[in-house]
């Protein structure tokens, strides 16, 4: 009989890494969406990323040394977190899903388009941002904006724009041809998602 063991994985503060310490992450997409899974690893503490790359990554020793050098030179770029999150998401959920959640992450922070995202990924990303149901007429209410005409005027073609795409209809919503149901728009620092809205994390 043979056994394979690993050291107890702990975080930089000495607490255990795992569900008993809260912040559980699951391989089952029904329990942790691929987007949330990616974000879990992307949010790894800078003090832990080197160790976690050695525990969980399949990159060579030379690649890890080069990556650690890049991390030391440009810590704000979070190259280690991006590498670990992308690699593990692809390993668990597949390369196509990993590419999609990375694109969703970029779009939510204003660095990508929405129309190529899988609807399930987009909805999971918005759920992570925190959705709130609002009445469909709220954006047109004078209680919400300075005048009743502000919303229609600001969302004419070329006015307000969904993240990564200019509005192209007189109502200000993306055209029906876009593959990101429900329709999305961005006003100020908030997302509008049909009858729901969520504050943008960017």
UniProtKB/TrEMBL annotation:
EC number(s) per entry: 6.1.1.1
Keyword rRNA-binding part of the UniProt annotation: no
InterPro entries, sorted: aa-tRNA-synth_Ic (IPR002305), Tyr-tRNA-ligase_bac-type (IPR024088)
Reactions the enzyme catalyzes: tRNA(Tyr) + L-tyrosine + ATP = L-tyrosyl-tRNA(Tyr) + AMP + diphosphate + H(+)
Keyword Transcription: no
Any GO CC annotation of this UniProt entry: cytosol
GO MF annotations, alphabetized: ATP binding; tyrosine-tRNA ligase activity
Root EC class: ligase
Chain spans, region Disordered: 154-175
Keywords, sorted A to Z: Aminoacyl-tRNA synthetase, ATP-binding, Ligase, Nucleotide-binding, Protein biosynthesis
GO biological process, one term: tRNA aminoacylation for protein translation
Record-stated family: Belongs to the class-I aminoacyl-tRNA synthetase family.
PANTHER family: TYROSINE--TRNA LIGASE, MITOCHONDRIAL (PTHR11766:SF0), TYROSYL-TRNA SYNTHETASE (PTHR11766)
Protein name in the entry: tyrosine--tRNA ligase
Organism in which the protein naturally occurs: Phytohabitans suffuscus
């Amino acid at each position: 009989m043979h056994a394979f063991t690993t050291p107890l994985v702990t975080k930089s503060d000495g607490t255990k890494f795992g569900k008993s310490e809260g912040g559980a992450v699951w391989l089952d997409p029904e329990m942790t969406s691929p987007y949330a899974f990616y974000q879990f690893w992307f949010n790894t503490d800078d003090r832990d990323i080197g160790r976690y790359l050695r525990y969980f990554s399949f990159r060579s020793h030379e690649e890890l040394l080069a990556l650690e050098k890049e991390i030391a030179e440009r810590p704000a770029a979070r190259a280690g977190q991006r590498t670990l999150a992308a690699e593990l998401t692809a390993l668990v959920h597949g390369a196509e899903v990993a590419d999609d959640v990375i694109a969703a992450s970029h779009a939510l922070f204003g660095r990508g388009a929405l129309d190529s995202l899988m609807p399930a990924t987009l909805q999971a990303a918005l759920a992570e941002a925190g959705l709130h149901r609002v009445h469909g007429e709220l954006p047109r209410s004078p209680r919400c904006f300075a005048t009743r005409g502000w919303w229609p005027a600001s969302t004419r073609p070329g006015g307000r724009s969904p993240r990564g795409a200019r509005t192209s209809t007189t109502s200000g919503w993306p055209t029906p041809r876009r593959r990101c149901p429900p329709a999305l728009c961005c006003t100020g620092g908030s997302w509008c998602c049909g009858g729901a809205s969520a504050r943008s994390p960017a």
